[in-house]
Amino acid sequence: MDGLKVVIIGAGIGGLTAAIALSQSGHTVEVYERAQELRPRGAGISLWSNGVKVLNRFGMGKDIAEIGGQMDFMQYLSTSGEVLNHVNLHPLIEEVGQRPYPVARADLQAMLLKKFPGTVNLGYRCLSVEEHGEQVTAQFENGHKATGDLLIAADGVRSSLRQYVLDREVHPTYRDYVNWNGLVAADEALTPANTWTIYVGNHQRASLMPVGGDRLYFFFDVPLPLGTSAPPELIRSELAEHFKGWAEPVQTLIERINPEQTNRLEISDVGPVDRMVRGRVALLGDAAHATCPDLGQGGCQALEDVYMLNHFLLTTNISVEDALKRYEAAREDRTRSIVKKARNRAEVIHGKDPEVTAQWYDQLRQESPSDVTDAIAKTILTGPLQ
Predict the structure, then answer these.
(1) Buried-most residue among 67, 85, 342, 359 (CB within 10 A)?
(2) How high does pLDDT run on average in the chain?
(3) Closest by alpha carbon to 294, among 169, 172, 207, 228?
(4) Are residues 262 and 273 both part of a single domain?
(5) Distance in angstroms (rounded) separating the CA atoms of residues 85 and 91
(6) What is the total count of domains within the chain?
(7) Would you call the peptide bond into 192 cis, given omega within 30 degrees of 0 as the criterion?
(8) Which band of pLDDT confidence, cut at 50, 70 and 90, is reported for residue 350?
(9) CATH code for the domain in which residue 302 is found
């Protein structure tokens, strides 16, 4: 189908990539974002090879390579700094045909904004949608209305349009741990420049991952009850208490973080939901299948959504509704599996069953690096781009 008018709600990774892809396919695209300014949720993101391949498909391969970190190895360490497992990622890269790129979210968002030929309308909070004949209209809080041939709801984990598609409310579910994340200058005292380093123990994690600009994306995970909080000035002391006695690089990292630029997030997920489409309205990305970040596939799944949605709009011509139903059918099993797999991994990492977590620590010591890369490759190659 050519020359459709597409209304996209949400200017995150999924919404902006969809805007780029659909514009390249000859459609007219309008993007609306409820925020007054674009500020990414979280400091960094690991884009595994399946997500990078989607960006390659839409002409952004060189761009993502320029802003992404060069990650050649990953290593798991104990709280004392003992190496539990050291994994060379080159066999994985050769098997799947693409290097992964950890990237600062602000850099990724800036790249996508530059590639989108249109304008993102900021400060537009969508209140409702209404379908009428062969069109759909979004109604915004400021009184504006946007009408198109289809509407993509890419408005995130707390989507305001998910209820319309599902005909029921589905709220995010807290997964029992808090994540702190941000960026620091790269330094060999923290981790080798080409290595993703993960310290594990006490059902907690401290992680350092290379991103572009000689920086490291860091995160800490700690199981905590819902509703805990700390003002920025207490974040460093809070982390120091949780990670007391951990290896020296972890202590150095805590000293170097900028508390004012450190995010503190209560981690939730959504779904699996039983549908992604209603008529001419399609959910995309976190609005349909927000995952725990423990698998590194949240952003990648939004990008896969974009690829498949664009594919069916290009290759089927029965109707918009038909193309969207094909998109839904193509994504259902994949996204369900990823949500469940990421949730299970979060539970293993963060001690939902302490015995299972202890077994995982033992497994890290014993499993071969190829077992690690084979598991990652399986997740990547189960997607639509081989």
Answers:
(1) 342
(2) 96
(3) 207
(4) no
(5) 16
(6) 2
(7) no
(8) very high
(9) 3.50.50.60
